[in-house]
Automatic annotation (TrEMBL):
InterPro entries, per database record: Bact_response_regulator, CheY-like_superfamily, Sig_transdc_resp-reg_receiver
Residue span(s) of domain Response regulatory: 4-120
SUPFAM superfamilies in UniProt: CheY-like (SSF52172)
Keywords of this entry: Phosphoprotein
PROSITE patterns associated with the record: RESPONSE_REGULATORY (PS50110)
Name the UniProt record assigns to this protein: Response regulator
Length: 121
């Protein structure tokens, strides 16, 4: 059975790039346009990993990450932050909130797939 990845980014074209890379690697992908949209999709169904942007409207990635970690069904779901943010302070905030990896855009799809393969349980 293929593993499910939730991709959260406000850029539809960016979600498509990520989705194609992950589908090619054999994953099922669910897309969300921001943190609020993503929370609406976390309805108890198994999500093996979340790839999330930081800067988004409505609910940013760090607020979304903190919220996910309070949900019993997703508390241990690994989250990879995929963002243009590269400041150490943001990365530290992400780690403190529970992010397992931080990939800076622009990125190589293979780099993302490697990280997903390592963390996806």
């Amino acid at each position: 059975m293929s593993k499910t990845i939730l991709v959260v980014d406000d850029s539809a074209s960016f979600r498509t790039v990520v989705k194609l890379a992950l589908q090619k690697a054999g994953y099922t992908v669910v897309e969300a346009g921001d943190g609020k949209d993503a929370l609406g999709k976390l309805t108890g169904a198994k999500v093996n990993l979340i790839v999330c942007d930081v800067n988004m409207p409505n609910m940013d990635g760090l607020a979304f990450l903190k919220e996910v970690k309070t949900m019993a069904a997703y508390k241990f779901t690994p989250v990879i932050m995929l963002t243009t943010e590269s400041q150490e302070s943001k990365k530290a905030e992400g780690r403190a909130a529970g992010a397992k990896a931080w990939i800076t855009k622009p990125f190589q799809p293979s780099q993302l797939v490697d990280a997903v393969n390592r963390l996806c349980v």
